[in-house]
What does this fold into?
Amino acid sequence: MRQRLSLLLILALALPSCAGLTARQEALLPALRLAWPGVQSDITTGIESGVENNRLTMSAAANLVLARDATGAALDTGDMASLAAVPWLMLKDEAEAGIKHRVRTGEISAGVSESLKERVRQFTAARATFLSSR
Amino acid sequence: MDIANELEKLLTSAAADMGSELRFNTTEVSAYAAERTTFLSTLVGQPGFQDAVIAERDNVALQAGISAVLTADAADARIVGIIHGVLGLGARALAAV
It folds into this structure.
């Protein structure tokens, strides 16, 4: 009886993590993957324009490119540890810089930039939620 | 009362329940989608409008994903609370035997 209860206790402790983990893998991760190409593009524009106007050194740009690619790889595999290891805030800054650059050059309007900036905000929140533990 | 049987029934029911809990808050996400659609309608004809359409699609998907996780986490926390309560009752019942 006691042994049976112990086994049930172990099961009870393991079971509750299922719904949260499932939601992360089957709902949030696909959304992150869907949004990534657009966010990645903004990051790339930020890095390239940063090098052009001397805001970034070549070395800093190279590190940012590595971080960007590491994020993409982590999203492909769904590896939480790899995703957590990437310094997201630096990439977020570059995404925002890239959006600003596109407004400056007239490629997008200020209004359109608000949609892109909202996506960076949502992506940031989604990444944090994906990596959060209960 | 057979505590083990009661716990088994509870866990079986909780597991079945979890399937129906894996949803997002439809009211919240629908409201957000409506807000973004309204905003998008103001951008028609502006440079980069197609990029905005894609971005707003992504925004709603991300919001729905976040909502699904928060809903699932809340369901998990509720189940943990129920199980701990029943285990506590079970432990006291066993100690009294």
In short: Chain A touches chain B through 47 residues (CB under 8 Å). Chain A has six helices and no strands. The helical segments of chain A are 2-14, 17-52, 58-77, 80-85, 88-104, 110-131.
